[in-house]
UniProtKB/TrEMBL annotation:
PROSITE patterns per the UniProt record, alphabetical: ETF_BETA (PS01065)
Ranges where the Electron transfer flavoprotein alpha/beta-subunit N-terminal domain occurs: 23-211
Top-level taxon in the UniProt lineage: Bacteria
Natural source organism: Rhizobium wenxiniae
Subunit structure: FixA and FixB form a heterodimer.
Cofactor(s) it depends on: AMP
Keyword Electron transport listed: yes
Pfam families: ETF
GO biological process: carboxylic acid catabolic process
Name used for this protein in its record: Electron transfer flavoprotein subunit beta
Keyword set, alphabetical order: Electron transport, Nitrogen fixation, Transport
Transmembrane segments: none
Length: 248
């Protein structure tokens, strides 16, 4: 079985986001970019399935600017076998990403597609679900455990107040949640080896997908600053202040 893992290049999760002065978006110039954290989890899971003998090949794919090659090289250094870069400088919305990924799935015929539950830049949480719909395949979202047996996957999902275990028929789309695993770091020798692994370049037009945005961002704002707190002299005073404020 082949596993396809889409990985997105996003602002690193440690970066303090700054909104552009004109409010049209966030500042990306000279900002550290990294692989979306949920996609690192997806790559890790695909590698573990391969190591367990459940898959033969892990293919990673990214839709983004030329620099997304770095993100793909990181996935190759973690252990993925091959990469596909679908190069575009447009900001590609989830529906267009899902349409392009459908084209990749049609060409590659993976048995499993492991997608992050959300990209931490736009927080859309849409791509995996849309891709499953376009493929007409099963989907198991927010996975905290994946087991493969034959042509079925048993997936434990993070749901409100607990977990749910479902069985889906492969090929299927699974989206990854934080508790699924802890991604490995790429070792220096593997970073060197990754430079020589195959990376194919394509464009959205190769898949007949128009990436023109359908949404218009009207405004982007920073969260309001927190007001300074007050010191109280005793527990009694704290309880009384909380009562007065209607908190308890
Ligand atoms: P989203 O629906 O935008 O929150 O993204 C969910 C997941 O879809 C991400 O974790 C990635 O696995 C995948 N994805 C979204 N955008 C891209 C992209 N430009 N390139 C590759 N994968 C993507």
């Amino acid at each position: 079985m082949k596993i396809l893992v889409p990985v997105k290049r996003v602002v690193d999760y440690n970066v303090k986001i700054r909104v552009k002065p004109d409010g049209t978006g966030v500042e990306l110039a000279n900002v550290k970019m990294s692989m979306n954290p949920f996609d690192e989890i997806s790559v890790e899971e695909a590698l573990r399935l391969k190591e367990a003998g459940k898959a033969e090949e892990v293919v990673v794919v990214s839709i983004g600017p030329a620099k997304a090659e770095e993100t793909l090289r990181t996935a190759l250094a973690m252990g993925a076998d091959r990469a596909i870069l679908i190069e575009t400088d447009d900001a590609v919305e989830p529906l267009a990403v899902a349409k392009i990924l459908k084209g990749v799935v049609d060409a590659e015929a993976p048995g499993l597609i492991i997608v992050g539950k959300q990209a931490i830049d736009d927080d859309s949480n849409q791509t995996g679900q849309m891709l499953a719909a376009l493929l007409g395949s099963a989907q198991a979202t927010f996975a905290s455990k994946i087991e493969i047996a034959g042509d079925k996957a048993t997936v434990t999902r993070e749901v409100d107040g607990g977990s749910q275990t479902i069985e889906v028929k492969l090929p299927a789309v699974v989206t990854t949640d934080l508790r699924l695993n802890e991604p490995r770091y790429a070792s220096l020798p593997n970073i060197m080896k990754a430079k020589k692994k195959p990376l194919d370049k394509k464009s959205p037009a190769d898949f007949g997908v128009d990436t023109t945005p359908r949404l218009k961002v009207l405004k982007t704002e920073e969260p309001g600053g927190r007001k300074a707190g007050v010191k109280v002299g005793s527990v009694e005073e704290l309880v009384s202040s909380l009562k007065t404020a209607g908190v308890i």
